Amino acid sequence: MAADIILDVRNLKKTYSAQAGIFAGAALGAGGPRAGAAVDGVSFEVARGETLGIVGESGCGKTTLARMLLRLIEPDEGAIEFRGENFLAARGGKLRALRRRIQMVFQDPAGSLNSRMRVESIVGEPLVIHEPHLAASQRRARVLEALGSVGLDAGALNRFPHEFSGGQRQRIGIARALILRPDVVVGDEPVSALDVSVGAQILELLIRLQSELNLTYIFISHTLPVVAQLATRVAVMRAGKFVEIGDAAKVLSHPENAYTQALLDAVPEIPA
Amino acid sequence: MNSHYDGTMSALLEVRDLTIELPTERGWVRPVNGVSFELAEGETLGVVGESGSGKTMLALALMGLEPPGARRSGNALLRARGAASNNGNAAANLSGANDTIDLLAIPGREMRALRGRDIAMIFQEPMTALNPVMRIGAQIEEAIRVHEPKCSREEARRRAIDALARAAVPEPQLRASQYPHQLSGGLRQRALIAMALSAGPRLLIADEPTTALDVTVQKQILELLVRLQRELGLAMIFITHDLGVVAQVAQRVAVMYAGRIVEEGPTRDVLRAPRHPYTAGLLRAALRIERGTLHPIPGTVPALDALPPGCAFAPRCEWRRAECEAAVPELRAASPAHRARCVLVAAQTEAVGAHSGTP
After folding, report:
1. CA proximity to A231, closest of A244, A242, A241, A216
2. Do the Cβ atoms of B291 and A31 come within 8 Å?
3. Which of A44, A230, B98, B236 is the most exposed, fewest CB within 10 Å of its CB?
4. Which of A:89-148 have CB within 8 Å of B?
5. Nearest Cβ partner for B216 among A57, A229, A249
6. Which superfamily is assigned to B119-200 in CATH?
7. Structure ipTM
8. Are the Cβ atoms of B181 and A223 closer than 8 angstroms?
């Protein structure tokens, strides 16, 4: 590969054990983690500046995979090489230094923003942790810069998340993810809680930010049309495994896997 | 096609100038504002809109489930059971008021009797609509026996299992004995559909019934609803934000924005040749499986307590003119069956979608 590989994931696995206890049987119904691996041997590379879209239905393991990429969940097996370093072995200051380079945008902006903090504190908090030497005035300048990049201004600083619409809240979540100037942004269903017209605005913002800031995206969604807007490569995930991965145009127009085809066929189409 | 409301049938449901007002700290707001439409027997009306458009409040008001403290006005006339369905029937016309029930005027006791028996509703998240500590079968039996107290336990049990089977729930006997958490999301929605249809309603209100489901499951549920509707001759109000879903299920569509219907007509006409700029914008904003096809609608939905004096969409509209800001436009006929609340309808004959994008 000639491309500059920023993230190299090898044979990642995670199994949730069904605990013995009064709810042991209940968890095996719908919704709860199934017996067997949530992520079952996933490998892929991501080149700098590209967007890998990962698509799959509920329970396929895509959120577990996303969280392992940030080490919010520790994998049972496998390796993650990030910027040429062993991410899973990193500890202490080394881990902190790597972690700030990879940030996440969550599905539900209402649930991922602390409702009792003002926007300035929410967006500025990563700086308190990762750049504690900054003076308050410098921190505020960085917060304003991040808010500006997502289309919000100083008027937002002293307000609380509930004072904003869903789309604006997601902009705040994106500003928080960008304030440390990361290399990689992992988006876990960042527009699926939003209305059609607002979701399209957020996707447009993400595309603009990617080219302005030279970001690498890993974009996770349950719907192909959302993934199709951003992805240069698409991986289709089912039961913990990638059933297909390849160039976006090819996977979305000439899929090799029957499940990918079924996902494409199930998208409700607006007649032309 | 023959199930279109064409003016010669009397409607199963006729909603006239329905307005719901809710109290807020800054005064009364109108989540539903002067909504009128008709629904024929066996017809599906798709109600499309984004959050805050009033589509869910409209559904709740028809069920008599609007929040406490709400003020409501207008009429929602449901044809009484057994009333003749043809205007040509002079006797039926003469009997007048006895033929219809105004859902907004009847007392709560009558509404409770009607709910489930005549009008049923299914919701976005079946888990919150089902009782988590009650077996599926028992919940459906309860829905049946509430309306038919004389129905025996055995009879109710048999009918509950039949209802599950009709909703294409595999192994209905086993599923009836299980609890909601033991079912997948798709099966739960099927169980909810079975329950909603168990007392034999004539009108089903479906509020985003597939939004929380995976696409492959969504497809199955939509096919099931369309089949059941045809088999049972159900009328349906199908609420969704997804124009692709509307295209699959509804013969007619009403687009709502800030509490009002802004466009209404045969689904095919509205989707192919929208006459309101908001509908055209929604169509362009709908995601296609193709890179570089993003066309968001600029701006945001106005807050209900800060609506502009004229057309609520005017601040976001690229065809805005002075008259749009002066007064709320009336619904104007673009064709006998197709209306849009836009001043452009009189001024031009082409669809607004045709003006955009193409050089």
Report:
1. A216
2. no
3. B98
4. none
5. A57
6. P-loop containing nucleotide triphosphate hydrolases (3.40.50.300)
7. 0.82
8. no
